[in-house]
Amino acid sequence: MNTYHKNNTVSTMRTGWTILELIFILIVIGILAAIAVSKLTATRDDAKLSVDVSNMNVCIRSVAAHYTATGVMDINIAPCNGINCYTIDIDGSNMNVGINTSAPNYCDDIENVGGHLIHNYQFAGTSIQR
């Protein structure tokens, strides 16, 4: 497209983007993508940690219910399978829940999120003592 100035000179308007502008746009998009991916990873790790804490809570209750019903301590029940952030040790009627030191990276914050479950649970008769 040609435009005419007062002194009758013709200047051509540029159409399109320069390489420098395109590179700048790509850099901005790359920075935004990096921020989004890191937030997505953090959210996914938080969700995995929450699932593990919830599963451990269900495991403790299921073991207690199983012990109360049968008098047998058994952690080989469905809710106790696949728990990564905790360790479970059985000694008679005691169930000791601890932190798994060789757990995946998302378990690093387990003491702050699910530390309330780390105890020695004593099962006896029809009640649970902590």
Automatic annotation (TrEMBL):
<protein>
    <submittedName>
        <fullName>Type II secretion system protein</fullName>
    </submittedName>
</protein>
<dbReference type="InterPro" id="IPR045584">
    <property type="entry name" value="Pilin-like"/>
</dbReference>
<keyword id="KW-0812">Transmembrane</keyword>
<keyword id="KW-0472">Membrane</keyword>
<keyword id="KW-1133">Transmembrane helix</keyword>
<feature type="transmembrane region" description="Helical">
    <location>
        <begin position="16"/>
        <end position="38"/>
    </location>
</feature>
